[in-house]
């Protein structure tokens, strides 16, 4: 399906779930769809459920290799080349510039987190 049709169907399923209070079982390999619509997730490998939990738990702390592979397919955790080539230390030393990755969950992405950090602590921010 094209992206617009997929979005329309997902919106319809969410509306049906909300209005009629019914459980919808969705089987897919498309983790973006899972991320968009599911409250709970079960990962099946060779016919066995190898991991299950809330969407939040599965996406923030996958335990099994297959689940990690699925989750990484929609999350870009790769550092940009510019940062990869910088000298880094795993421990903080006074005067160092720490590298921090922020991930936002739910509506918190609408809060002025970066602006607050810059103003309150005078930090330099590089967006990638």
Supply the key terms.
alpha+beta; extended; 10% strand; 128 residues; two-stranded antiparallel ribbon
Overview in brief:
The protein has 128 residues and is an alpha+beta fold.
Q: Report strand order across the widest sheet.
A: 1-2
Shape: extended
Q: Could you give the order of the helices and strands?
A: HHEEHHHH
N- to C-terminal separation?
30 Å
Largest sheet: 2 strands, antiparallel
Mean pLDDT: 84
Range of strand content:
5-15%
Structure description:
The chain has helices spanning 3-20, 31-37, 55-60, 65-72, 81-84, 113-121; strands at 40-45, 48-54. It has a two-stranded antiparallel sheet with strand order 1-2. Helix content is 41%, strand content 10%. Strand 1 and strand 2 form a beta hairpin. With 128 residues, the chain is α+β, with helices and mostly antiparallel strands. It contains six helices and two strands. It is extended. The model has no long low-confidence stretch (mean pLDDT 84). The two termini are 30 Å apart.
SSE layout and pairing:
Layout: H1 3-20, H2 31-37, E1 40-45, E2 48-54, H3 55-60, H4 65-72, H5 81-84, H6 113-121
Antiparallel strand pairs: 1-2
């Amino acid at each position: 399906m094209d992206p617009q049709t997929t979005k329309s169907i997902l919106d319809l399923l969410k509306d049906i779930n909300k209005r009629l209070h019914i459980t919808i079982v969705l089987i897919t390999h498309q983790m973006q769809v899972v991320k968009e619509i599911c409250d709970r997730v079960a990962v099946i490998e060779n016919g066995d459920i190898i991991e299950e939990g809330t969407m939040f738990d599965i996406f923030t702390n996958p335990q099994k290799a297959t689940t990690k592979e699925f989750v990484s397919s929609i999350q870009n955790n790769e550092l940009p080349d510019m940062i990869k080539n910088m000298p880094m230390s795993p421990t903080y030393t006074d005067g160092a510039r720490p590298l921090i990755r922020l991930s936002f969950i739910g509506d918190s992405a609408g809060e002025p987190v970066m602006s607050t950090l810059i103003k309150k602590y005078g930090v330099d921010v590089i967006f990638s």
